[in-house]
Specification:
It is a single chain. The chain is mainly alpha-helical. Helices cover 71% and strands 0% of the residues. It contains 3 helices and no strands. The protein is elongated and about 45 Å long.
Length: 68
């Protein structure tokens, strides 16, 4: 069971040009999105720790996204 709702991921795909999204494709999109977000959060947390913080800030996420 995934944490992200499939409908939200399908809406994102459609708002970016997809006319239709198959259920198998939607499931893979959710899986890949969760992997990406998980890795981004890990990197952002490392940056926050390096700065002596326990809280991830916007700047940590932006910096982690640039290095991804």
């Amino acid at each position: 069971m995934s944490d992200l709702p499939i409908a939200a991921v399908v809406r994102i795909a459609k708002s970016n040009g997809a006319e239709r999204v198959g259920s198998d494709a939607a499931a893979v999109l959710v899986e890949k999105a969760e992997d990406y977000i998980g890795n981004l959060a890990k990197e952002a947390f490392k940056l926050a720790q390096h700065a002596g913080r326990k809280t991830i800030k916007e700047e940590d996420v932006e910096m982690a996204a640039k290095s991804a």
